[in-house]
Amino acid sequence: MAPSKSREGKKEQPKTNRRKASATSKMTAPANPLSDGHAPTELAEQLAKPKNRNQMYDMVKGHAASTVPEFLKYLPENVRLPIPLRDNRRFKIGPDEEFFPGQYIRMEGAEYIIVQAPTKKNYPLIWRAVQQDRVKMVVCLCHDDQMSNSDDSKCFTYFPTEPEQTMEVEHKKGKYTLVCKSREGLSMGATKYEVEITDSEAVVEKNSDDPNAVNEKTRKVLVFHMNTWTGQKPETGNVLEQAQNVALFFREVKKHELNILRKSMENYVSPVLIQSFDAINRSAIGWVALMLLRDVEKRECFDVPNLMKLIMKSRMGSISTYYQFCFCMAVCLHIGKDVKWCENDCNNALTELTAKFGDRKLNELGNVAV
Q1: In this structure, what CATH number is given to the domain that contains residue 191?
Q2: Which residues lie within the region annotated Disordered (predicted)?
């Protein structure tokens, strides 16, 4: 049989041409020491140059989930659960890159800072971070029983909680004065505070006589405190019952986050700081919920498992138990139900998830495994 005309004179193309440039080109080696398709000779030439070796190490290291030297370097400074992470994700305070128990989580133009619970000794670092990145929203996820001003095994109460209450926070170059301007109880078992922060060292650049002047010396920060969520599995009753309140809480947080974004006249969008005790479960669930709310608003997707995988990859230890997985799934299903997107499907999945939780026979979508 004669060959097909469509194939005559043609060679089947390889599935990838990643080696094509290096195997056939007579040009000099590319500047990027990690270019795809290096032949052994080219790789040897790159390694012969000390500058390229350093570049290659830095570029390869950037793909690691964490690096041991940085982890060991800051291990003694961890007062909570030590979390290995990439050095380029670590939140660095000031020009000296002082250690701070937090990290950036960036995705699709949204940026969050995940932070562990502070102690009485290191709580000023939170406010230094807030000032450094001009943070406008702080989310605290520690239960009231996990807060204390004297017990370092608990989260220090790092913000004023009563109207007109004042806190003085010392930092290297001066002090911050925090004043609680308002306190509002929310229906889902949470509290919203408006905190005014004044930096003694900030300079007012504009003439104070100008009625339109922006006073950068004093600004306001919203603090949302979900003070009724322990993050632990209840010993009795419906173990996923509080997921509804948590979903409502993060819907409220997202609403204010979007309001700040819409009112902002700057190109820079400040990150939201999310703080829980070890910052691996409640903070991770909060991040998943806030990212899902972005998708839900646009009716784009409801890919909860993928969001879970992303936070697990970005922050080791996140959503670390079967209970945390199911609780996170329940929060997301409540969000879908409350915003009227596939309401019946979400409601049915919630019913099944609650009924079958104890069987531990669920797949990653929260459905009964078959």
Answers
A1: 3.90.190.10
A2: 1-39
